């Protein structure tokens, strides 16, 4: 059995629209070790959600087209599976929590029944028995089981997200994908939901892909981090690699644009400009127009992924000739 629950190799996905070809993923490679949590970080439009949907084979075709690449989930070749088989692994092997709990639940079905339906389908169990399991799931996410007959409007945003988590975990998936699970919640509730997810992940011995634009969320729950920009992974490493030995100028830009608790006087410095239009990606580095370290090579040549250590990779020309290079060197 592979050490990795998930392997994505050189994945290219595009959307063929009336306005042209939108290149959403441009050679994404990443893996998640069993029992670990990977944070996938980047701005809106970087390709994070497309990556997640591709794992569940939920990229709609047309307009979506998988140009090439491979996805192996729990030793299964996702691309080569029949639709029937994919249907069976959704929920039982891999499950996904979406961003907005307000719209993910059916307003006219009780929360208990919504959890029970997922259990009944995947475990081929009568709905009555599944209701007993659903009650246990509610308790597990910190909601009294006695509330099983209540409807989504009777719950707060944070409670609704707990119900979504209960549905996602009801069939004990091996991999949980959480797409910005706390973005729509109040800050105080965010921390509670993250803590709950972390606890359940440990208890159920799951792996997790946490999609976020928030580096604060990553440090709370993740073991490894992949930074995504314009459909590519530009830097990947463990928390120490990314937070203490930042290599990619885009990763540095993300850190510079959030408050630093160790240096309260530091001025926030947002990354200039906008991400390249995915239908007009440049030939060279996609970050070229926004990068304060850009060199002539960067305009014409796409940087390869370089292995800096056993745990740390980066795709940037600055490290091509000198893996020891530090971003600070150019500022001294
Ligand atoms: Fe900047 Fe060049 Fe590195 Fe791209 S390859 S991030 S433009 S230095």
Explain what you see:
With 332 residues, the protein is α/β, with parallel strands linked by helices. The chain contains eleven helices and twelve strands. It has helices at 48-55, 83-89, 101-104, 111-123, 127-140, 157-169, 187-204, 215-221, 239-244, 249-256, 296-300; strands spanning 4-17, 20-33, 37-41, 64-73, 76-77, 94-97, 175-179, 207-212, 224-229, 232-238, 306-307, 313-314. It has an eight-stranded mixed beta sheet, with helices on both faces. Strand 9 (224-229) and strand 10 (232-238) form a beta hairpin. The model has no long low-confidence stretch (mean pLDDT 92). The structure holds iron/sulfur cluster. Residues 249, 285, 287-288, 291, 293-295, 298, 303, 316-318 line the site of iron/sulfur cluster.
Overall body shape: globular
Order of helices and strands: EEEHEEHEHHHHEHEHEEHHHEE
Trace the largest sheet across and list its strands.
6-7-8-3-9-10-12-11
Q: Assign a percent range to the helix content.
A: 25-40%
Biggest beta sheet summary: 8 strands, mixed
How many strand units?
12
List low-confidence stretches. Answer: none
List all distinct small molecules, including ions and cofactors, that are bound in this structure: iron/sulfur cluster
Mean pLDDT: 92
